[in-house]
Amino acid sequence: SAVYAGLVLLSAPPGGGVNVRRGTRPVGEMLLRKLPGVSASGMGLRLSQKFVFLLFISGLVTLCFGALFFLPDSVRLKRIFLSKSESPAVTAVSEHGAREQPRNAAGEPEHPRRPSVSYEARTAGRAREERSRARAEPGGRARDHHDHHDAAARADRDAGFSGQSRDAFDYGKLKKCLFKPPLGSDGGQPSDPQARERRDKVKEMMKFAWENYRRYAWGKNELRPLTRNGHIGNMFGGLRGASIVDSLDTLYIMGLTQEFEEAKEWVENNLDLNSNGEASLFEVNIRYVGGLLSAYYLTGAEVFKKKVVELGEKLLPAFNTPTGIPRGVINLGSGTSWSWGWASAGSSILAEFGTLHLEFVHLTELSGNPVFTEKVMNIRKVLNKIEKPHGLYPNFLSPVSGNWVQHHVSIGGLGDSFYEYLIKSYLMSDKTDEEAKKMYYSAMDAIEANLVQKSPGGLTYIAEWRGGILDHKMGHLACFSGGMVGIGADDGELTKRQHYLDLAAEITHTCHESYSPTKLGPEAFRFDAGAEATATRLSDRYYILRPEVIESYMYMWRLTHDPKYRQWGWEAVEALEHHCRVEAGFSGIRDVYATTVSHDNMQQSFFLSETLKYLYLLFSDDDLLSLEDWVFNTEAHPLPIIRRNCPPEKIE
Ligand code: DMJ
């Protein structure tokens, strides 16, 4: 190598008798010939010439050392020169986006190495050392309770929840540290008889949807209720049973015990993670990873933990890009990943790579393996570095250059759950993740300054932004934002808290307005050419059993206890029963304005995981999956707030 040649040259005996040769000519001689006024023997150098020569050699050495950072992690030289603790904790981000991912002989991206045992042991060891050092410090105990950035916490973060091996996650401690039992004091049974009756109705709907799935589509991803068969689709690669995994926690909280046991047994014996096929990283994460995590946290059954960590590891190759921003599609069998064909210029989608944080942090908690958290923290790092037009986050980003590809901004599809995960990351960290908090509230400022609008009829809505031009439309997906702005209200600036709560209520009201006349809402609605929250295009009039509007009702109910939210939720129940219930399940409809209903023959898995769960929670007492203890992922799977220290009153 050049370093080696340089070192040999420096130690060459007079006369240039070096032993590194290219052909028959000594390398030292060849180099010295290039320097004007220097004889090939290298003797008789003037001081200035020696200086220039040394400068050249030291530049070369620095260059070669710097180049180590660009080598794949597996290269031996790198491991010798840079111990793991010194190397960047995340997939390396080159300043110039120049680093290519390691590829195998066939030119396909290499599978990431499983972190070696010695690395895990080293990290855990470091964590233990740091913990005992922190505790030995005077005043350390008091700080333990209050300073979330102390050495012990840092060490815990590095090594996972326990700082021990991957099997050491302390489920008992987690349960003890909750403020409320997950199912509340009485399964969330409401004292109000009307709410109880309505909740029972929702439970019956879940039972009906489940039984039909079980009868006609068992093991497939979704039920086709009109044709009474199963649907596989192309979102989950070779994975199957999306409706089963998505339903686990809903069945559990509703007390549908036998159904839950069947679902659990299927996961144990039939959920095959070694499957090939194109899977959406985002969909697999929110439905499968989210569903399995919740099932584990609610029940403590090891099978869910084992499966979810295994699945999480299979998602990691998607992050092998020059920036560490994952690509959207992954083959879980081969680890090959690529971008969606429809995404402009091979870009990754904000709502996809921005909706991994909650699940990946929990994968680290359960496995003790920091790699999951490192991957999502790197996404943050890239996003924080890049300039944002008017403080806004466009929806398309190149995983190669780390630059925005298009200036389309939306709080609906393509952008939505990125914002949701910022505030939820903060809440899930027990309000210690200040970076997420800052990002969320700055994004909110930009959204309010550029996108929030009032219609001529007085409805508040969030428009889309295309390179500075507003598109006065809101998607059904964007209606989750009522709930999001609501749960973020309390931690905003003191002077803005009431404003956020008002904004949340106004958005939820607008979305409710879009739910007419069938009391079900279109996929997108507009506020131009005289439209007031109505779909003006035929192609926007469908409703596929989506949850977002009901999700906002649920949060707004919990935050305000204004009875109108329960009333609006009940309207939706009646409309679902009337328009979407068919003989063998529930189906989406093609036109929410049509008098004669036309069904789309699909019972989406998110109907079971989200729509029915949010309705059930809306009619339950607040202590069922209390917001003090749980944060819902974007597929409504509850994940516990991570407490480094138990609330004082819970310490025995
Ligand atoms: C769900 O899979 C999730 O809520 C996701 O964030 C958006 N789309 C669907 C429901 O509409």
From TrEMBL:
Positions of region (Disordered): 91-163, 180-200
Active-site residues per Swiss-Prot or TrEMBL entry: E283 (proton donor), D416, E523 (proton donor), E548
Domain of life from the UniProt record: Eukaryota
Presence of keyword Signal: no
Catalyzed chemical reaction(s): N(4)-(alpha-D-Man-(1->2)-alpha-D-Man-(1->2)-alpha-D-Man-(1->3)-[alpha-D-Man-(1->2)-alpha-D-Man-(1->3)-[alpha-D-Man-(1->2)-alpha-D-Man-(1->6)]-alpha-D-Man-(1->6)]-beta-D-Man-(1->4)-beta-D-GlcNAc-(1->4)-beta-D-GlcNAc)-L-asparaginyl-[protein] (N-glucan mannose isomer 9A1,2,3B1,2,3) + 4 H2O = N(4)-(alpha-D-Man-(1->3)-[alpha-D-Man-(1->3)-[alpha-D-Man-(1->6)]-alpha-D-Man-(1->6)]-beta-D-Man-(1->4)-beta-D-GlcNAc-(1->4)-beta-D-GlcNAc)-L-asparaginyl-[protein] (N-glucan mannose isomer 5A1,2) + 4 beta-D-mannose; N(4)-(alpha-D-Man-(1->2)-alpha-D-Man-(1->2)-alpha-D-Man-(1->3)-[alpha-D-Man-(1->3)-[alpha-D-Man-(1->2)-alpha-D-Man-(1->6)]-alpha-D-Man-(1->6)]-beta-D-Man-(1->4)-beta-D-GlcNAc-(1->4)-beta-D-GlcNAc)-L-asparaginyl-[protein] (N-glucan mannose isomer 8A1,2,3B1,3) + 3 H2O = N(4)-(alpha-D-Man-(1->3)-[alpha-D-Man-(1->3)-[alpha-D-Man-(1->6)]-alpha-D-Man-(1->6)]-beta-D-Man-(1->4)-beta-D-GlcNAc-(1->4)-beta-D-GlcNAc)-L-asparaginyl-[protein] (N-glucan mannose isomer 5A1,2) + 3 beta-D-mannose
Cofactor (UniProt): Ca(2+)
Cell compartment(s), UniProt: Endomembrane system
Enzyme Commission number(s) from the entry: 3.2.1.-
Family annotation (Pfam families): Glyco_hydro_47
Any one GO BP annotation for this protein: carbohydrate metabolic process
Keyword terms of this UniProt record: Calcium, Disulfide bond, Glycosidase, Hydrolase, Membrane, Metal-binding, Signal-anchor, Transmembrane, Transmembrane helix
Topology with respect to the bilayer: Single-pass type II membrane protein
GO MF term list: calcium ion binding; mannosyl-oligosaccharide 1,2-alpha-mannosidase activity
Record: residues binding Ca(2+): T634
CC annotations in GO: endoplasmic reticulum; extracellular exosome; Golgi membrane
Segments crossing the lipid bilayer: 51-71
Composition bias type Basic and acidic residues, residue spans: 96-113, 126-159
The keyword Glycoprotein is assigned to this record: no
Function: Involved in the maturation of Asn-linked oligosaccharides. Progressively trim alpha-1,2-linked mannose residues from Man(9)GlcNAc(2) to produce Man(5)GlcNAc(2).
Family statement drawn from the similarity comment of this UniProt entry: Belongs to the glycosyl hydrolase 47 family.
Protein name: alpha-1,2-Mannosidase
